TrEMBL record:
The lineage of its organism: Bacteria, Bacillati, Actinomycetota, Actinomycetes, Kitasatosporales. Gene3D superfamilies: Electron Transport, Fmn-binding Protein, Chain A (2.30.110.10). The keyword Transmembrane does not apply. This is Flavin reductase like domain-containing protein. Belongs to the flavoredoxin family. It comes from the Bacteria. InterPro entries: Flavin_Rdtase-like_dom, Split_barrel_FMN-bd. Residues 21-175 form the Flavin reductase like domain. The keyword Flavoprotein applies. It comes from Wenjunlia tyrosinilytica. Keywords: Flavoprotein, FMN. Its cofactor is FMN.
Length: 204
């Protein structure tokens, strides 16, 4: 038996909780931006994924209008810092609704490093930083999807194995429902099957 739910019959938060508990685990973009008057901002966003391969693009969603979105709109730049397990409490603390004039880097005590191609700084202890230029935004109801072209990537050599970021070394955190977070579980590996190799493929 299933419980059937019609979004039209439920309030916004009921469906928000259902979606965020169902679409799991979500990777976390730890987004750094700089305001027009020079304040460095940092906030986690778990509505985040790769948006395009060529040119390389990523996307995150601002639910409502927040400082990160305002800064991206004002400056056209942001950095997605990957969120490693060892920075769990700091990442959560940057989700606090600090006033616009305060920098989460300073309030939480997070070390910056300069970016190569954009003005917002990178998180020094994050294993991967994707420096982005704003491509476009799409307003969807109460949320805004931000698309950014990755103009530079900086990867810590401590997580590289044969030139590739190794997930066991990155230890990415994920966001689950409620106040739950996930850590990396067991990693499975399997090759995709080409149709030409599918059993009985020649007959159909
Ligand atoms: C793990 C985590 C994931 C989050 N994901 C999102 C998200 O995808 N979109 C969003 O608007 N807020 C998200 N939030 C809440 C924002 O981080 C929070 O509202 C923050 O204060 C926004 O900061 P800003 O105003 O400096 O941009 C998340 C918070 C946490 C802790």
């Amino acid at each position: 038996m299933r419980i059937e739910l019609d979004p039209a019959q439920h309030d916004r938060n009921t469906f928000y909780r259902l979606l965020t508990a169902s679409v799991v685990p979500r990777p976390i973009a730890w987004v750094s931006t700089t305001s027009a008057d020079g304040v460095d901002n940092l906030a986690p966003h778990s509505f985040f994924t790769v948006a395009c391969v060529s040119p390389p693009m990523v996307q995150f969603t601002s639910v409502g209008r927040k400082d990160s979105l305002r800064n991206v709109e004002a400056t056209g730049e942001f950095v997605v810092n990957l969120a490693p397990e060892q920075l769990f409490e700091q990442i959560n603390a940057t989700g606090t609704d600090f006033p616009h004039r305060l920098s989460e880097f300073d309030a939480v005590g997070i070390a910056r490093e300069p970016s190569t191609r954009v003005k917002p700084p990178r998180v020094a202890a994050s294993p991967v930083a994707l420096e982005c230029r704003l491509h476009s935004t799409v307003l969807l109801g109460d949320s805004t999807v931000v698309f950014g072209e990755v103009v530079h990537a900086a990867v810590s050599d401590a997580v590289l194995v044969d030139g590739h970021p190794e997930v066991d070394r990155m230890r990415p955190l994920t966001r689950l429902g409620k106040d739950e977070w996930g850590t990396l579980g067991e990693v499975l590996e399997i090759s995709r099957i080409r149709y030409a190799d599918w059993p009985d493929a020649q007959k159909s």
